[in-house]
UniProtKB/TrEMBL annotation:
Keywords: Plasmid. It comes from the Bacteria. PROSITE patterns: HTH_MARR_2. It holds the Pfam family MarR_2. Coiled coil: none annotated. SUPFAM superfamilies: Winged helix' DNA-binding domain. This is MarR family transcriptional regulator. Signal peptide: none annotated. It comes from Neorhizobium petrolearium.
Amino acid sequence: MSFDPKAPDQEAGKAVLLPGVAGIRIRRLQSLFGSHWQGWFRARGLAVTPVQGGVLLSIRRHPGISQIALARRLRIEPPTLIQSLGPLIKQKLVERTRSLDDGRVYELRLTRAGLEAAALVEASMPEHEADLLRSLSPEERQTFLSLLDKAIAGAEMALEEREKEAEC
């Protein structure tokens, strides 16, 4: 059987999911969340990605945080953070200034508009997620979140172990 790129997928619009493989499902759910997120917030006058939303919330919680510390906190690579910061700075939501203590370090703070954007993100997230997870009952949603937390903790442990092995 040959691949025909013009033929419709048997499950049109659905990702091909391998039995027993969580990663593909997680990536699919992340993609759906991201698409919904961007439409949701654009309709509310805020053009930010999910990563940028996390950046806004983290800077609000830690005003003056360095770019490196923020990248670590969000568990993203510094170049990814820089790509996310650019539009936020351009939209005048974030200010990036050199540290008075160490001129090599950039500190990040939210502007007044950035504080408003972070508040909108935080206030909108429950409704946004409820819309996306509407197929789950309240009990299923709680179980789902608990299982996600458990899977994340396990994945973080595995990653830390791999990083330690690589250092040796």
